[in-house]
Amino acid sequence: MPEGFEGRINIEGKKGFIIRGWAPQLLILNHKAVGGFMTHCGWNSTLEGVCAGLPMITWPLFAEQFYNERLVVDVLKIGVAVGMKEHVLKTEDRPLIHGIDIERAVSCVMGVGEEAEAMRKRARELGEMAKSAVMEDGSSYTELTQLISELSDLHP
């Protein structure tokens, strides 16, 4: 960490804190103080963000992450891209994402106005749908139960 960084983050224990090591992502995403999620768009993180009902700032790096970004930004309309356009194998060859691009994305997700509020509302609604799908009698619960039953019937 740069010298003085922790002091700028943790002012009298009121502004923020630094987690060293593995962070409990699900607990963090589901905390009432979290208003958005910057993600690399890996499938698990994407699902965790959707289930938490959060709008997302997308920053894919490789593989299917660019497809997941399109789902979040263009289909579900609950995200804003920082501008990473293509997979580059070597880290040192990746294009630089400028702070102004990150600031723009954060402002779009956390800002005021009809578009930002509509994105947050869609994200919350998708989160509720995801939670209800895994509850008893929800679509995912029912389909998984049916699959287990069918597989069990194959080997009595």
Automatic annotation (TrEMBL):
GO MF terms, alphabetically ordered: UDP-glucosyltransferase activity
Keyword list, A-Z: Glycosyltransferase, Transferase
SUPFAM superfamilies, alphabetized: UDP-Glycosyltransferase/glycogen phosphorylase
Annotated InterPro entries: UDP_glucos_trans, UDP_glycos_trans_CS
Record has Manganese as a keyword: no
Top-level taxon of the source organism: Eukaryota
PANTHER family: GLYCOSYLTRANSFERASE, SCOPOLETIN GLUCOSYLTRANSFERASE-LIKE
Family: Belongs to the UDP-glycosyltransferase family.
Protein name: UDP-glycosyltransferase 73B4-like
Species lineage: Eukaryota, Viridiplantae, Streptophyta, Embryophyta, Tracheophyta
